[in-house]
Specification:
With 123 residues, the chain is mainly beta. The protein contains no helices and 11 strands.
């Protein structure tokens, strides 16, 4: 998401839309650009970067089929303006991935140009 969007975050989690600069291979996106479905089974490197305009006490994660993906939860103890994680996992065809902010009831503003990215690379 390179548009500098404002994301209304709820405590339980809010999906981050990723509509910009998509290069989809082995993955499809839903209409809201918040859920990415793997079309080919295999090992994948999944990584994300989130850059906010102001430091917040906020957490991030990737969910797989709606459940937090182990190794991707970033839960800082202090306010931060940048969150990232990387993991290698085996995925089956049809599994769904989403990038999520959680743990805050309020607004998080993504930086323009480099607000949020999700990279799903088949190995």
């Amino acid at each position: 998401n390179s548009s500098g969007a404002v994301v209304a975050v709820i405590l339980g989690g809010t999906l981050i839309p990723l509509p910009n600069n998509q290069a989809l291979s082995n993955v499809t996106a839903n209409g809201a650009n918040t859920v990415f479905t793997v079309t080919t089974a295999g090992a994948y490197k999944i990584e994300y970067n989130i850059n906010l305009t102001a430091a917040l006490l906020i957490s991030s994660r990737i969910t797989k089929n709606g459940v937090p993906l182990v190794g991707t939860v970033n839960n800082p103890a202090v306010s931060v303006s940048s969150l990232r994680s990387s993991v290698i996992v085996n995925l089956a065809a049809g599994e769904q991935l989403s990038l999520q902010l959680f743990g805050l009831l309020g607004a998080a503003t993504l930086q323009g140009e480099q607000g949020a990215s999700l990279t799903i690379t088949k190995l």
